[in-house]
Every structure is written in C-alpha cells, then in structure tokens.
Amino acid sequence: MPEQESTSSPLAPTRESLHRVAEHVLSAALKRATGRIALRPGPGGVRTPPLDDEGRVLALVGTDIALLVGAEVTRRAALTTVREAAEAVGVEAGFPWTKHPPGTPYRPDEPLTVDPGAAETLAQWFALGDRALSLLAAEVGTGDAAVPQVYPEHFDLAISVDRVNYGASPGDAAIAEPYLYVGPYDGPPIRDAFWNAPFGAFVTREEVATPQDALAFFRSGRSRVAGLVRP
Questions:
Q1: 3 state DSSP class of 184
Q2: Sign of CA dihedral 204, 61, 9, 12
Q3: pLDDT digits (tens, 9 = 90+) for 55-64
Q4: Across residues 113-137, what is the average pLDDT?
Q5: How crowded is the C-beta side of 104, counted as CA atoms within 13 Å?
Q6: Are strands 40-42 and 45-47 parallel, antiparallel or unpaired?
Q7: Cα–Cα distance between 114 and 144 in angstroms, integer?
Q8: CA dist 103 to 1, 3, 172, 182, Å?
C-alpha cells in the first residue's frame, strides 16, 4: 500500500507551496510568453526555459523566486505568497487555463510555507531524477523526443518512452515521500511484487541513493513491460 501523507513532515507543505508557485507563476508566465507549460530542473529547484529572446528565465531557488537573464540573477525575493512572488519577478500571477483547470488552487494571497531543508531535499531529488531520466533517454535512443520535464499540473519530472511514463515525483497525497515511478499507459502488465501500485510501480527515496540506482529501477520496469523479465 502507498504510504499516506504525513502532516508532521515539512516536505508536504513545502512541496505544496512550491507546486503552487511553479504552476501559477513560472508555468503561467511561460504559457503567456510561449504557449508551453513544462518546466525544467535547475540549481536549487525548477525553472522555466527562456521566456524570450533576451534569455529571461524564472526560477525557484531554495526558498526564493528569481529572475535570471542568461546566467545573471537580476531579481530575487523570498517566497511569501503567490501574488508577491509574481510581482517580485514582474509577471502576472494565475495560470491562464482554458479547457483544463490547474492542479493547484489559485489562492494568490494565502501564505506559502517553504522549509529550507525540505526545499533542498526536493531540489536534489529533481536533480537525481533528471540525471537518471536523461541517461535512460540516451540509452533507448529517443534523442530530443524525451527530454525530462516538470509538468506543472502534477509537479513531477518525467519522460514518456514507448507508451510508458518514467518519472521522479516529489511526493503526493498517496505517497508521502519523494519517489520514482514506472507507469505503463495501459497499467501494469501483470500483478507481482514489482508492480506495487495501481498505476504501475514505485520506489521511495529511501531505496534510491544515486542516479544509477534510479536508472536500474527504470531499466527493470522497461524490461518487464517488454516481457524480458518473467514473474
């Protein structure tokens, strides 16, 4: 059974607060500027691809939001509320959705809770996942078609290869700790110890120390989906 969300850990409120800023400030600005929404891991957290020809990038860095032009930080402010985060970097708050609502509620003036240690843990988890997923993509020959991206509605880092999602999640309401997952589009091919969730398989960060550990998990899932590993 997936572990239920712990209310005492600083990871949960930090993750939820970062998710809200990522969706209603970073991805919102990216969509308005380019029509795209997916973010990328970066030093200290997550960030947008360049918003324009000037190379402007919005980034979550630890407990702060920052505006970068190239490699230079031109604005930086502590995360307090969604509205103030957007104002600090000169963009409009609120995800501009049309058909599908955002994954987090838009409460622009609700205080954010961001613990420095928890923010660093999540940034390191995204960095580990990015390295492992990039290695997997290179290994299976997907080229640029499977660049690891942080999807704002779920706030997890993932690629999709041959109708299977591979990802690194910072945790959620069902699985409290950061975890890796393998999620076939059609669900688990069989039921065994590896396929331990309705969506597929997961392992938490306690079982993963390095990008190579993560890559081994992704490889195992890929082999099992292909039928190369028998129960």
A1: strand
A2: negative
A3: 999 999 999 9
A4: 97
A5: 29
A6: antiparallel
A7: 33
A8: 24, 21, 12, 21
- Residue 85, exposed/middle/buried by CB under 10 A (0-12, 13-18, 19+)? buried
Helices (H), 22-89: 28-34, 82-88
The order of strands in the sheet holding 201-204 is: 149-151, 156-161, 164-169, 179-184, 201-204
Q: Which residues pair with 77 in a beta bridge?
A: 65
Q: Which residues, in sequence order, are CB contacts of 139 under 8 Å at separation 6+?
A: 215, 219
Report how far residue 116's alpha carbon sits from residue 17's, in angstroms, rounded to the nearest whole number. 12
d(CA 160, CA 33): 25
Total residue count of the chain as it appears in this document = 231
Taking the C-alpha atoms of residue 27 and residue 180, their distance in angstroms, rounded to an integer, is 23
Q: How many helices (H) and strands (E) does the chain have?
A: 5, 10
For position 71, what pLDDT does the model report?
Answer: 84
